[in-house]
Amino acid sequence: MIEDKTERCLRLAREEHHCPHCGQRLSCCNAPPFHVGDGLGWGTDVIFICLNDECKLYTSSWEKFEERYGHAASCRYILLPGEEKGEAMMVGGQNAFKGSEIDVEALGKTNVRHAREKEAEAKLATCVAEKDLEPALYLLTDEHAELALRKRACELLAELSDPACIDPLRNHTFRHSDLEQQVNMAIIEVLRRNHLKECQACAEIIKNQAKVCKHCGREV
Ligand SMILES: [Zn+2]
Ligand SMILES: [Zn+2]
Question: 105 CA to middle of ligand 1, Å?
Fold first, then answer.
């Protein structure tokens, strides 16, 4: 599956990373065109950065720069996507990087898939009462949707108890094995509540009491 730039930004903006110096959640920002340190590119369009003005790294570095280099600069903690450990990066002023935070709302509106995800999320609260399988099924079969949201959708499957969910879910390839496992458990529950089972031979759904599969004719 090819991930476009918007999807990548949305995914990264949802990741939670914290500053080891102050504990504050790092802001997800568009990377500036040039790396201050080496004049080369960043190799990424998005970086995580601690923008806390009370951060120890930031407040204590002003003096160090003044002493050592005789000019006003400080450091902020930055982390590149996919990295475990970040580094201190020189900033020239308090407002460096501020305003370059990725605006998930604005970005999301430009992205049709993301808009559908939000729409489905909004419908989750009432879908059981309305017996509407669609939003839960949409989220479960959208690999770009937020994992926590998809797990919530999966929790509703048993209550929705609609056997129409089984084929699309069986035909979907899940990238997260724990979600796949949760879906399999939910399918078993949906079958049980509807007094149905899956034929061992042809995988079609048949009545629990059936002795012979009406689809493949085998004894079950
Ligand atoms: Zn910090
Ligand atoms: Zn069969």
Answer: 25
